Amino acid sequence: MLKTSALLLMTCAAFAAALNQHRTVGIIENGMLIEQTVTQYDDLHIIEVPQHGDRAHIVAYLDFRSGLQLIKDVKSQRCQLSNMEATTRIAHSRMVSVKSADNGLSMPDLPIDASGVEEARVFKLERQDAIQNTSYLRLELQQACAGLAIHWADSVNENDVDRMVQNGELMYDKQEKIMLQPTNPEGRLSRQNSCNPNPQAMPPNQFNCHGSCVIQKCKMTGSSCYYFIHCPMNGNIGQQCVQHVLTAPGQCKLCCDDPTSPCSSPTNGGYWQRCSCLNW
């Protein structure tokens, strides 16, 4: 009987500790109060941010064990998997090195003023085909998107865009919010302005696109954000403890970027149309 009571007490204590890891954090963004919920484990943070302004209602899963992050758009029921931002991984490594006075989360005294926090702006270029095998993901991520397609997204930090454009790794139309990303940038650069491996031959068409011509055309389809808190949540959270991660998801299609390829719709559903001919 004593053993049963002790086990029950231990189970209740463990359950209470788990509940203490789930908190709502108030954030003041442009005069608007946003209540973000955070569930924190040793190597997994689950952050839910409500819809506000033009930003979508999302749940972000930050898996520090694998270095992956999953963002689920609640309204559109889309799931996007990518590598975690380097700045977030670095912030988390600082966080785990800090010894907290308690082992759980406690409510901050006041809402956090987001006006002066560190920001990371990232474009997420979502690949066209869904991931077929998701068994390598931890269980929480699999359950979050059960029954939904999960798409891999390449991350492009806004601070790197100008350099990537100059290097030929990326083309960006800011007005149209469209990015072109060569799948083989080295081959593309070596051929300069032509995709054709043999200038004397007929140019590739939408059915036969040379590897150096294959490109991702990505259109930014919205925006979302979350606040990653990398200090122990013991009531002393300040601006220096918060990182604001803003993401611009982009849906991508593979296409053939040869200027002499015809624009007519092919019978295969448009897979190899010229990039300039693709519409959303």
Note down, in words, how this protein is organized.
With 280 residues, this protein is an alpha+beta fold. The protein has one domain. The protein is 17% helix and 36% strand. β1 (22-29) and β2 form a beta hairpin. It starts with a helix and ends in a 24-residue tail after the last strand. Residues 1-20 and 98-107 have low confidence and may be disordered. Keywords: Signal. Residues 1-18 form the signal peptide.
Short note summarizing the structure:
By secondary structure, this protein is α+β, with helices and mostly antiparallel strands. Helix content is 17%, strand content 36%.
| Share of helical residues | 10-25%
Kindly, what is the distance between the CA atoms of the first and last residues, rounded to a whole number of angstroms? 67 Å
Total beta-strand segments: 14
Which structural class is indicated by helix and strand composition? alpha+beta
Q: What is the alpha-carbon Rg in Å? A: 23 Å
User: What's the number of helices?
Assistant: 5
Structurally, how many domains make up the residues?
A: 1
Helix and strand sequence: HEEEEEEHEEHEHEEHEEE
Q: List segments where confidence is low: pLDDT < 50 over at least 5 consecutive residues.
A: 1-20, 98-107
